[in-house]
Amino acid sequence: xxxxxxxxxxxxxxxxxxxxxxxxxxxxxxxxxxxxxxxxxxxxxxxxxxxxxxxxxxxxxxxxxxxxxxxxxxxxxxxxxxxxxxxxxxxxxxxxxxxxxxxxxxxxxxxxxxxxxxxxxxxxxxxxxxxxxxxxxxxxxxxxxxxxxxxxxxxxxxxxxxxxxxxxxxxxxxxxxxxxxxxxxxxxxxxxxxxxxxxxxxxxxxxxxxxxxxxxxxxxxxxxxxxxxxxxxxxxxxxxxxxxxxxxxxxxxxxxxxxxxxxxxxxxxxxxxxxxxxxxxxxxxxxxxxxxxxxxxxxxxxxxxxxxxxxxxxxxxxxxxxxxxxxxxxxxxxxxxxxx
Length: 340
Ligand code: EPU
Fold this sequence. Notes:
The chain has helices at residues 32-40, 96-105, 158-161, 198-206, 214-228, 249-258, 276-282, 311-329, and strands spanning 6-10, 22-29, 50-52, 63-71, 76-81, 85-91, 130-131, 134-135, 140-147, 152-157, 178-188, 236-240, 246-247, 264-266, 272-274, 289-290, 293-295, 302-305. The strands form five sheets. It has a five-stranded antiparallel sheet. Strands 1-2-4-3 form a four-stranded mixed sheet. The chain has a four-stranded antiparallel sheet with strand order 12-18-17-16, covered by helices on one side. The protein is an alpha+beta fold and 340 residues long. 24% of the residues lie in helices and 26% in strands. α4 packs across α5 (214-228). The chain contains eight helices and 18 strands. Bound molecules: uridine-diphosphate-2(N-acetylglucosaminyl) butyric acid. Uridine-diphosphate-2(N-acetylglucosaminyl) butyric acid is lined by residues 131-132, 197, 199, 239-240, 243-244, 263, 275, 277-278, 281, 286, 299-301, 336.
């Protein structure tokens, strides 16, 4: 069947924040070659398209004068192995959590700490998803992407992707240029559980698991996430709304002197990562609303849509929270979700 775009397409059900949005043009991409074909025919020449995966890290405007490409490329397979690793490849449209659980059931552990993160495989490298002491960059081998400049398929390795905390090439020069179509992971054959994140260690301890299996780690991570993070099907949200700010040694010393109980995590470069959730709670925003949006009672870093919110409401609360945190701590919070 020839590819056809749909016009004035509603994305309200396709973003986990539940924001209303009507897009000018919308199409579902089921293969990389379908996308290269579109580029070569000039169908995307007017402006860079918005790439939609699971819609779990997006703040959509009410009208989007753009073409939306919903990446639904399926498939997952073991594509190789060496003495130390299994190499597993998945289509960009695969659901992230289902893919993680499949690797675990097949006996290829390594992604269990990233269980239950909403979204798709193809979106995962964009913000270098991370949780409970692991980031996707730690298990990444390479990805395939369509270059919208010329319709070719390129392979990018970890260095090309320039991964950093909640960041990558695809949020900078690569934005609007590369559309990720598949990702290959490198999973360790000699697996040991990664339990240095305090909350995960406590959860495993509470379950009496001293030497947990990969599936037991995954189950513990799922339990923590279900307890703390609101289910988007019930209460619209995009996970952590701000990044955890990273501050210089001098700023850290100043803050620590004033707020000795402030959580902070030393980074490899000597700076400290602060807990945005703690800063927001201390600034008085935990469980507090502004119009139809609020900072979640169970985790102040998560903004929730209590019903009927638009992006304007989200931005108004984000501004107020940023202002309060700046006034109290002289720290600037940076939003995590993408704003097309
Ligand atoms: N905290 C508070 N009050 C709050 C929330 C948190 O005081 O309302 C304190 C906690 O007590 C803890 C610290 O802040 O000492 C850290 O909290 P938590 O363990 O919940 O993690 P986080 O820093 O808020 C980050 C990621 C999450 C990830 C968890 C677990 C970011 C922006 N967020 O949250 O990722 O699941 O760690 O690793 O880095 C996401 O990106 O959408 C996301 C959910």
